[in-house]
Amino acid sequence: MQKIQTQGVHHITLNGADRQTSIDFWEGVLGMPFVFEQPNLDDHDVNHLYFDPGDGRLITIFTDEARKKDSSPNPNAPGTVHHIAFSVSRATFTQVERRLEERGIPNSGHKDRGFMDSIYFRDPLGHLLELASYKFEPPVGFTHAQVLLEAHRIRVARGDMAISDVHLADAIEDLVKRSQESLSDDRGPKQPY
Q1: How far is residue 63's CA from residue 45's CA, in Å, rounded to a whole number?
Q2: Which of 6, 12, 21, 57 is the most exposed place for a label (fewest CB within 10 A)?
């Protein structure tokens, strides 16, 4: 038996209400370009809208003009989606709370997650969304996930509860040391002053 190896999220499809609500939210609030639409090929009475969340992948929405929007929170039960998180730049993150408040959108305010900063709010249909900004950039040739895996190992070895800046900094240093050769015999910290 072999695994079925995934290579990333292809797309996420949500059930929407009317077409314009989806366009106004996904493009008009979150800035995701509306890239194409067509009928739902499994149900031609439903429309299928496609948005680019910023990485060339897709968020798609099934819309039906007969469905009314309901902003009640979606169920929080086993088998349901808790939230969807989207990446934003640090510069954008510092503006998110104000920009949501300008629209009257309730939100969690800034949440420090140790390795990232987050803010939570609901879309017009009750889906919980998160906008997240990493506190670090991975070294060239590495991904955020690889840095987090290394930071996790460091955190566990030290007996700490959650990843913090020190774990991230040490993880990045370790990854660079292992991946980049040096002519120095001793690559340890020094005090040249």
Answers
A1: 9
A2: 6
Lookup result for tokens 């309730």:
106
Largest CA distance in the chain: 73
Give the pLDDT confidence of 153-167 residue by residue, as tens digits. Answer: 999 999 999 999 999
- Which domain-ending residue is among 69, 85, 110? 69
Query: 64-117: per-residue pLDDT in tens?
Result: 999 999 999 999 999 999 999 999 999 999 999 999 999 999 999 999 999 999
Alpha-carbon gap, residue 78 to 75, rounded angstroms: 9
Contacts of 128 (CB under 8 A, 6+ apart): 73, 74, 82, 83, 84, 120, 121, 122
Helix axes 144-158, 165-179, angle to 10 degrees: 110
Q: In which domain, by residue range, is 19 found?
A: 11-69
